[in-house]
Design a protein that fits this description.
heterodimer; A: alpha/beta; Peroxisomal Thiolase, Chain A, domain 1; B: alpha/beta; two-stranded antiparallel sheet; 13 helices; 11 strands
Chain lengths: ~325, ~375
Amino acid sequence: MRPVAVAAFAQTTHTGHDSGLSEPELILPVIRAVREQSGLTEFGFTCSGSCDYLAGAPFSFVSALDALGAWPPIQESHVEMDAAFALYEAWVRLQHGDVDSALVYGFGKSSMGDLREIMTLQLDPYYLAPLGLDQLSYAGLQRSAVRGDFPAIARRSWESAQTNPYALKLPEPVETAPITDGAAAIVLVAGDLLQERTNLAHITGIAHRIDPHYPGMRDLTRSASAAAAATAAGVGKGPVDVAELHVQFAHEEIVLAEALGLPAGTLINPSGGPLAANPVMATGLIRIGEAASRVMDGTAARAVAHATSGPCLQHNLVAVLSRES
Amino acid sequence: MGNRCAVIGVGQTHYTTRRRDVSMAGLVREAALRALEDAGLTFADIDAVVVGKAPDLFEGVMMPEAYLADALGAAGKPMMRVHTAGSVGGSTALVGASLVQGGVHDRVLVVAYEKQSESNATWALTTHLPFTSSLVVGAGGYFAPHIREYMRRSGAPDHIGTLVAVKDRLNALKNPYAHLRIPGIDRAMVESTPMLWEPIRYLETCPSSDGACAVVLSSERAVTGTPAWVHGGAMRSEPIFRAGRDTVSPQAGIDCAADVYRQAGVTDPRRDLDVAEVYVPFSWYEPMWLENLGFCGVNEGWKLTEAGATALDGDIPWNASGGVLSSNPIGASGLIRFAEAALQVRGMAGDHQVEGARKALGHAYGGGAQFFAMWIVGAEKP
């Protein structure tokens, strides 16, 4: 595949409450930051991820274009998914060879509604949603099937977050990702733009897979889709210094670490992970950004990032980031 | 750009007001199975699935790709969900094609749908973000002022919209999948219907439909059956609130067309293309898009419509299928345009086939006329 690398990453200082900023106001500073970091003001392709149901209105991504100042008109697309999947779409677009840069961003204000109940609406509307399972309920189903020291995961994530200026300042460790407002952006480069830069996190592999929807169709103690994505992304082809995992519930870390085949010494979620800040629709993209940052600042030679979607880790994306291309 | 990509299968459901007999999963699966049958393939031959639809509020299912994964045979595969407002059907095809053009996959299933009977689209389009005002008008109320401005600028006579409404419904009578099939449709019938949003009458607007459309996209080495080759694809977006943007003939549409024409080697679209499937949800958008897409000069679009140039027997037929005016499962409407363009160059459009069509345009737009997606497909390998 054509080499593609992360050249810039920025995120908001996330909040656990509505700070009064609209979505475009959340996005604007992170877009400005990645433009400055990358030295690029225009991009060959732009892709974003967001969810209308967080805002409770259709087309919540439309006004984001005003924050970009998309003029003259830009080549742009949007996924109603975590922005990590928007990054995947941008990576595919860069494979064509005719454009060398892409801007990816995601944003979400889960403070605006009842996130736990909103997530019920992504279940099969005929057979699952009417059961009234909210996000905590179906996560609880999986938790009851998984064995592990969940409080230890919560504690380590909380301690790690103490040095992350963007994370929430939570008074104590939590096993459930907190309600969070925030946004993030990443710049990808390829071709000449990649050749002329040195401080990059190369995406040496990226892949995603989806599992059957119904929790009853799956072994909830494992994640077949995460394992398949990890294999396709080449996680096992080298050491993994750092892994940033989209862990919205502590028990998911155990399932994911096994599915991804992470070596024993891998440092998991040194940012504190989603248990310290979970701006829904940007959380997965932030995992890629955090992993890339570790590679770019030299604390990791090779890092893995993971993003998820759907109930009980139904859909999983895995990326490998490396100092070397 | 990138590797060659072809449409090798097209599947559609019959478009109608209410599909009471199928679930959402049943609806998309029906279109997907027809596309696979057309390509002579099964779900096992598909590498990845891309789903597109308009706002989730239309059905009340958030991020429905999670739920639809099983029905579309996506388990164990990559699956994407695209949402770019009304242009989404077109964008979904382009995202699917991108996977082939980027060399990531050999065969991609693209599905777009809307089951509008699950809710009220005008309501869903009318809710607004906190701290912003709502016009409480739906899509027709939003676009009517742009149409009036077009009429003022161009001096087009009042009956042009009526002509488009009749022409597209006559075409729909030749398309077995079309929703609105109105025997005896004529100008008098259109003009007798109520005025909804001046100057748009009831029969000058699109219906609310249930339906799904699917296409199978293939790399060159994996082609089966009759391919329609992708000669070019482009997307453009512009900000909705930018002061000074021309909502009558948006720059993003002009730029998107220029991009796709350049890729496909089209210099004069009226001459170089044989047929166009263009997103016309309100009749007046035909003359407006004729100009925006460069089929004629500024303020000349209505003259092509009036002269019958865009009729099925005209020199550049537009919406031979009956178009969005005859079938409108919103999220699928763009993909139907792209798919109908492919059917035409494959010679498989049935009674609404444009004789000898070799090159066709598929077009979609959305948001406040700010998101555009287009492709050009051809019978010959590019």
